Amino acid sequence: MTDEEFVTWLPRVRTAYADDMVQNAGADPEKARGKAEADMERMFPGGARSADQLVYAIEADGEYVGELWLAPQDTPFRRVLWIYDVHVDEAHRGQGHARAAMSFAEEEARRIGLPGIGLNVFGGNEPARGLYRSLGYVEEAVYMTKLVPS
Q1: Same domain, yes or no: 103 and 61
Q2: Global pTM?
Q3: Which structural domain, as residue segments, surrounds residue 69?
Q4: Are 72 and 91 part of one and the same domain?
Q5: SS3 per residue for 15-31
Q6: N or C terminus of the chain with fewer C-beta within 10 Å?
Q7: 143 with 91, same domain?
Q8: How far apart are alpha carbons 83 and 131 in whole angstroms?
Q9: What pLDDT tens digit does each residue of the chain (150 aa) get?
Q10: How far is residue 3's CA from residue 55's CA, in Å, rounded to a whole number?
Q11: 20 and 32: one domain?
């Protein structure tokens, strides 16, 4: 990803992350924005690129169609290459770009010497969950909640 693309990408992914927490996890919008801002600041101090974070543009025939964000991370079970975000612009979905990006992530895990890949997906994101299952991803843990009326 070029520096120009990064400057556009970072605020968009921060906003999308906060929106996902609100829409798919029932988070309070203000708390979601605060968490998104704090998490992004931790991973990209001062809004700058970080050597620990691998951010790629996804292109098809020279056209920018989305982004892939990876970073090594420790999970409760092992150190893996974590997929923080795979995003394909709506106009380019259903054409195999996300699948190709996931395959690239596997190559990166091998290159770095990590034994696997991990990711988090909100329960309501069925298109993504279906893609991950079709690629051989399995659930290792499931976080569940139930809101009770006051």
Answers
A1: yes
A2: 0.89
A3: 54-150
A4: yes
A5: HHHHHHHHHHHCCCHHH
A6: C
A7: yes
A8: 14
A9: 999 999 999 999 999 999 999 998 889 999 999 999 999 999 999 999 999 999 999 999 999 999 999 999 998 889 999 999 999 999 999 999 999 999 999 999 999 999 999 998 887 788 888 999 999 999 887 777 777 888
A10: 11
A11: yes
